[in-house]
């Protein structure tokens, strides 16, 4: 059972100039160089959404509150007059590098995803209607909890998916707006209240205030279960806050997307390891994997070669696990020993995500020198290769994408969590497009 409620959105004042300059990517995708780029803009929301590397948590929360108050006092942020649902649209294209990572049948020139933005009643994860699929870390949850509590704001919606036969809610949205995706035709009488571009993607927000439609959507969602795709730490923080019983905290801000939407894509996070015990790693590889190696000169398109090898299927055998690897000299395709994978699956009671599970359990965690933070994650194979070539990291591992149905099986049937950074969903929301104020600080 999923309880939805309309709310008054806080948005950037669209009458101001250069509103696109005020939004930024979601906080947990921002590295140091990106922070420098966006924080150079005085009126970018990054000043209250994202902690700068090196800032202590309490410093960051104080800094965020000061900037948030400035945004309200200067009229940069405004609150809508009446409670509503909101339609969040993201129209985007994929780079050639990302396109190579997804199955050919899912490749399109333009993608246009719809999401329903609403308040969702917070409840304990994986007990009733709200499921998660990824491990969380207490320190990360507490940072978001303190920011949430002190600022009294949801800065961006948690993204979750639902299943809906016949795409009923997405069809409601298209009828309401008067166009069929991926086309975009803006009706003068139904203009978006936010329309910004970020990194080549267009983010649009429409207000849906029709009470009859709101009631119909609430009814359609009432018997559903939703699965968090993006925002596990924010959800954990929201649930923690809701248990304290403060006014306005029983619900949290979410964007609900249909799992069968063709514009919703699931990609892998690749791993770069800073330092490892080389002899131990190779002993473990030889013990658990068959190895194919390729000189760089053999790979005219390095990323394309990696993905053509990873995506080869062996008669749809779920135990045929493959991992890519690069050590600065050669590329390797590692084929896991099938019987050992079957034993691992039986031991853990899991059959989904065995590639990333075996990579971490057999290779990364036992041979890592340093801290878990010395493993970094990137969606870009080229970026992973460059990190190794520059000497910042010793080795890179590449994974293939999971089908969304496998991720759903993990959460709904196996009731297990993936390791951290196992799944990357596109599109991402942007910080600053739609927010929600519940505190009394402004």
What layout of secondary structure does this protein have?
Layout: E1 4-5, E2 9-12, E3 24-25, H1 32-39, H2 46-49, H3 57-73, E4 77-79, E5 85-92, H4 96-99, E6 111-121, E7 130-131, H5 138-151, E8 153-154, E9 158-162, H6 168-177, E10 194-198, E11 201-208, H7 211-221, E12 226-230, H8 232-242, E13 251-258, E14 265-267, E15 270-273, H9 278-288, E16 289-295, H10 302-311, E17 322-326, E18 330-336, H11 338-348, H12 354-367, E19 375-378, H13 381-389, E20 395-398, H14 404-414, E21 424-426, E22 430-431, E23 435-437
Parallel strand pairs: 7-12, 9-13
Antiparallel strand pairs: 1-6, 2-4, 2-23, 3-22, 5-6, 5-11, 6-13, 8-23, 9-12, 10-11, 14-21, 15-19, 15-20, 16-18, 17-18, 17-20
Helix pairs in contact: 3-5, 5-8, 9-12
């Amino acid at each position: 059972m999923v309880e939805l409620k309309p709310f008054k959105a806080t948005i950037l004042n669209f009458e101001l100039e250069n509103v696109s300059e005020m939004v930024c990517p979601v906080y947990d995708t921002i590295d140091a160089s990106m922070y420098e780029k966006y924080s150079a803009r005085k009126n970018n929301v990054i000043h209250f959404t994202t902690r700068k590397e090196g800032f202590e948590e309490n410093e960051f929360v104080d800094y965020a509150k000061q900037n948030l108050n400035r945004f309200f006092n200067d009229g940069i942020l405004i609150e809508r007059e009446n409670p509503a649902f909101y339609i969040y649209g993201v129209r985007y294209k994929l780079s050639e590098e990302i396109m190579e990572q997804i199955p050919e049948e899912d490749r399109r020139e333009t993608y246009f995803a719809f999401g329903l933005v609403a308040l969702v009643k917070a409840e304990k994860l994986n007990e009733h209607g709200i499921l998660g699929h990824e491990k969380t870390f207490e320190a990360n949850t507490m940072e978001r909890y303190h920011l949430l509590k002190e600022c009294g704001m949801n800065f961006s919606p948690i993204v979750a998916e639902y299943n809906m036969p016949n795409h009923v809610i997405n069809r409601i949205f298209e009828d309401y707006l008067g166009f069929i995706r991926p086309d975009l035709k803006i009706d003068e009488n139904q203009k978006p209240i936010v329309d910004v571009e970020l990194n080549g993607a267009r983010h649009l927000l429409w207000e849906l205030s029709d009470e009859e439609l709101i009631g119909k959507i609430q009814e359609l969602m009432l018997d559903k279960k939703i699965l968090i795709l993006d925002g596990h730490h924010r959800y954990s923080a929201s649930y923690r806050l809701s248990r304290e019983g403060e006014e306005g905290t029983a619900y949290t801000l979410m964007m609900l997307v249909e799992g069968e939407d063709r514009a919703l894509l699931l990609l892998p996070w690749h791993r770069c390891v800073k330092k490892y015990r080389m002899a131990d790693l190779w002993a473990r590889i030889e013990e658990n994997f068959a190895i194919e190696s390729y000189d760089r000169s053999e790979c005219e398109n390095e990323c394309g070669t990696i993905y053509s090898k990873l995506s080869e299927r062996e008669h749809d055998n779920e135990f045929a696990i493959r991992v890519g690897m690069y050590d600065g000299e050669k590329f390797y395709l590692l084929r896991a020993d099938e019987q050992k994978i079957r034993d691992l699956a039986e031991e853990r009671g899991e059959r989904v995500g065995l590639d990333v599970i075996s990579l971490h359990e057999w290779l990364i965690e036992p041979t890592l020198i340093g801290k878990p933070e010395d493993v970094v994650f990137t969606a870009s194979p080229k970026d992973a290769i460059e990190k190794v070539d520059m000497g910042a990291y010793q080795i890179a591992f590449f994974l293939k994408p999971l089908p969304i149905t496998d991720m759903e099986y993990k959460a709904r049937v196996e009731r297990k969590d993936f390791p951290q950074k196992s799944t990357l969903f596109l599109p991402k929301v942007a910080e600053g497009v739609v927010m929600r104020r519940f505190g009394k600080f402004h």
